[in-house]
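I am still getting used to backbone structure tokens and would like to learn alongside you. To get us started, please write out a protein record for me. Once you have written the record down, we can walk along the chain together.
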Amino acid sequence: MTTVAVPGTSMAATPRVTWPAVERGGGLPLLFLHGYPLNHTMWLPLLEALPDGIQSVLLDLPGYGLAEEWPVPDTLSGFSESVHRALAGRFRGPAVLVGHSFGGYLALQLYHDHPDQFRGLVLTNTRSGSDSPEAREKRLATVRRLEDPSQTLDIEATARGLVAPRTWEGGGPVVEASRSMVRSARSPAIRGTLRAMAGRPDLTPVLATIHVPSLVIWGEEDQLIAPAETQAMTAQIPGATGQGIPGAGHLPSLEAPELFSRALRGLVLRVTSR
């Protein structure tokens, strides 16, 4: 494990702080942004399959994993600016961002605000639209419930929704990894992320402005974000390619790391050949 140094923020008490991250290799920078309520470990199976010449940085968002003690924003722009500062503090030039679910929302917001930070973009199991009123109220109802310290997420139900039904029925390390990530998510991080998701804007107009090599990946059995919603972004991003992962749910990087890595290597080749 290495650390990523980022400039201080209004949430930090010192002028410069150290953001913890897992880093591997050197070369083309790839920054991985996990979804909710997960952490950097969802990306670990990909590391060994990536080609040489890649600097992989698995960043935990504020409140999660290695960064669980960091103050948690409650808006998408707040999370996005945290990632912006991490990028600016770590990399001298643009990077390829890989955003899963909530991490995908962040990547789109970041592209809107700081397109110069991108050399490539991967969006997986995410969507560009905002919440429906019903979905927004469901998230906020969970926030209100979790304001009671005695309340927690339903670990089994949440973890079950993250993977394909067949994956869950088979049990094993993928299912346990899903449980472990959900179990480790702390209430302040959950509440802040849910508020950020509930209040996020419609980012669909951003898609047509993306002019870096882009890849869209979806699990064909995703139970949380309809695969068709993720797939639809492929046609809306100029020159983007798309890849469905058969038999995978919301976590194809864990459920099918070989197929996910193969698609990612293709995007890396497009970036480096420009």
